[in-house]
Amino acid sequence: MSAKYIQKKGNVWYFRRRVAVGCEGLHRDAKGKPQSGLFFSLKTGDQIEAAKRANDHAKRQDALWANHLSSGFGEAVDPKAALGRLEAAGLKPGDGLRYPDSTALEDLVQTLTGGPYEPGDYRPEPDPQSRLTYDLLMGKQMPRTLSDAQEKHIALGKGPRNKTAQQQYDRAWSVLMGITGDAILTDVRREHANRFVEKLRKRGITAETISKYVYQVKPVFDTAIREFELGIPNPFESLTIAGKGSEKPHKRLTYALSELEAIWRRCREVDDERRWAIAMLSDTGARQAEVVGLRKEDLILTGDVPHILIRPNANRGLKNDQSERKVPLVGEALWAAQRAMTTAGEHLFPVFQPRKAGATFNPNSASAALNKWLKDNGLAKAGQGLHSFRHTLVDRLRDAGVPKDVREKIGGWKSQGVSEGYGQGFSIAKLHEALLMISMASPNSGII
User: Are 318 and 298 in contact (CB under 8 A)?
Assistant: First the structure.
């Protein structure tokens, strides 16, 4: 968290910030004089806690100032601006009930309602923002906003789990916020959800991808409705997305044996980390992230069956529980593993590790570079790529007569049937035997 607007005085942290031009009248000192700067104790000696409290104050002030400078036009209201207005007057929600005789309370009520009024005077209805501020002052429940929903969802551990998921989440919420702003949850309607879908469609996004965007938003609403006890329907529930299910899925082409041999030949000619990764993918059928994120401790070259341990590590997690497995090394995968063990450091493929200190490992960047090399060298045509090795391995195993459940174990797919959850599963020797049936090492490789 950025530690803005804080200053230490003695053992206590203070908040210091200049008031936005044009908003000085919102903040007054004890004598009623407008303030151009704010300075007050955060009542803590802990810097992290001080930064959090200062950040909360700043958010409320930003909302208040933005609302004031826009003259509060429109029907939309901002709860943070209402809280900021109370804070600027030295008040809190519910103080209208707790301190009915307070001078500060009387002054703010007159400002919000346009008073003072004499008995029998006509009292115009306050604007929506002033009405919300007055309602909070008088003890009404604080309305929850979209940002509140996101904070609660993340606090419960339901937020994005990795960098890629975070990017998808941020893109989806950027689209929604562009439509609604940080709206009160009960003000978000089905109309907004339909506009969300339509806005994505106008960008040329497919129905299937739009569904993924919706999935980044809908669960957050589910969390908010349940945790805040809102008692409203989820506006993103069962949305109609025209064309969903009718679009032809992207065809993933497999590699012919002659194409595999050409790839293996070039990998051995270039003989570097990136080519070792391609070779390992081609003869294990493992997912791209599973391979490029391997550490040397995940590689077992001793014993009767050389193999890799595909398991969560500091680089990356796994797609599902079935993904954690042992995959024997044969043919080009074994050659690649032996070569990769000659690199320095703890990572099997250090070339894919982030260069900047503190940066997050991103397997997608490796995928882009490796796919580009295959295409630039005429080794992959349209529809072929790294993931095609996974499809190709299934075909090779199937053609060799390897049973379906053995294929699923090698690839880390979920098996069907209750009995599949019993016992230890196939031995690594059995998996090794299956992969040896399809091992087609390059000429002069020395690997049988």
Answer: no
DSSP state of 34: B
pLDDT of residue 107: 83
In terms of C-beta density within 10 A (0-12 exposed, 13-18 middle, 19 or more buried), how is residue 1 classed?
Answer: exposed
Q: Which of 68, 58, 173, 196 has the alpha carbon at shortest distance from 129?
A: 68
Cα of 403 vs its chain's centroid, Å: 38
Distance CA 373, CA 369 (A): 6
pLDDT at residue 162 is higher than 80: no
> pLDDT digits over 16-27, tens only?
999 988 888 888
Q: What is the pLDDT of residues 30-88, one digit of tens each?
A: 777 888 999 999 999 999 999 989 988 888 888 888 877 776 444 567 787 888 888 88
Q: In b/e form, how buried is each residue of 310-335, taking b as 16+ CB within 10 angstroms?
A: bbebebbebeeeebebbbbbbbbbbb
Cα-only R_g, the chain? 31
Distance between CA atoms of 184 and 138, rounded to whole angstroms?
Answer: 19
Q: How much is the pTM?
A: 0.53
User: What span, in angstroms and rounded, lies between the C-alpha atoms of 268 and 276?
Assistant: 8
Give, as one character, the DSSP assignment of residue 315.
Answer: S
Distance of CA 149 to the CA centre of its chain: 15
Mean pLDDT value of segment 149-164: 87
Q: Decide if 44 contacts 23 (C-beta within 8 A).
A: no
Q: Average pLDDT in the 163-175 region?
A: 88
What is 257-436's CATH number? Answer: 1.10.443.10
Q: Is the pLDDT of residue 416 over 60?
A: no
